[in-house]
Specification:
mainly alpha, about 80% helix
Amino acid sequence: MDSSKHSLIYSAILLVLMTISARATNNMVTTTVPLLAKYSLQLSNSLVGLLSALLFAFNFIATTFINPELNSKLRKRVFVISNVIILLSLPLYYLSNAISIWIISIFAGIAFGLVMPNLITAASLANDKKSVERLLSLYSTSLSTSLIIGPAFEVYLLTKYDYRDVFLWFIPIAVIGVIIASRIRFPDVKRESSGISVIRNKGLIAGSLAVTTYNVPFAAFTTFLAILAKDRFNLPNFDAYFVFLPFYIMSFLTRLTMTIRPFENLRMPMLISVIITILGLFGILYAPNYSIFLAVIALLGIPHGSIFPMATIMISRATSIAERNAVNSYFSAYNNLLFLVVPATIGFVSEIVGLSLSISVLVIPVVITTIVFFKMFWNDNIIVKR
């Protein structure tokens, strides 16, 4: 085995372990903090939505204004420190009250914002485009793997413990991230690009529009899906949280398929994914029982699995290595902006029309964004690779 292939495999293993640790912990925090706030601290839907928005607001600040401005060497140090902060936030959440939970979420939001975009960049640092796209699909598959391991572990924990205890049990998973953080690759370039020229990058625009078609509803799911299942079907804690498992299992299978056989032409996979999203949002509204509700959520796991890796591939096709950190940071920042706005909006609207209808009307921005995306890029080589 030559040294370049050995180096690629080593990087892939580190990337998988780091991604699973970071994303499993991140998902647990973003989905369990709302449950802790609502059922342990007795906050209203509106305050739960605002708390989730606060977490992603500071995530947005980190990805938009801090990470793009750091040079590669300093960014690596901050990356390591951020993993330590994430680890420390877990016992603090366990000890939190109705006031301190807001403060902890600020620091956790910043830390996650300085970790996740650098993992996307690390996944795009292979020497050739085919390896880059395969590594990006592997990164996305690792995200989905973590989103099976984490929720499955949490479902088991909730059969024995309450929401507070979950944070303590995730400490070993966060420790893995702290151990590996210093070994993750960062771009080896003297000068990296950022600012307006990068914001106008075609890959960033295409990736952001593509991911909007799914992350608008997913932002609502992260905060409110378990709450919706619990309240609508009168479920115990572990059954309500179980709703994430079929969703993430289907996402994992989709991304695994894309890792084994990456898409060259992204046009039809994007179109099919959006159609599934629209059908799934209507299915949430009309599902008559928990079993059908689970089937609908599993269906929605397909576009969750496909759209994010396609968006990162669009970015890789239109950026140089010097641009990639800033583009991935702005891309992550945009995603965080969605997760800031959508939960807060859904929280307030649900007080008036209920959670089911609030989530289902998200089909409107999905359709609008899809039309804009395909109008701009239907024949572009960023999705139709020639």
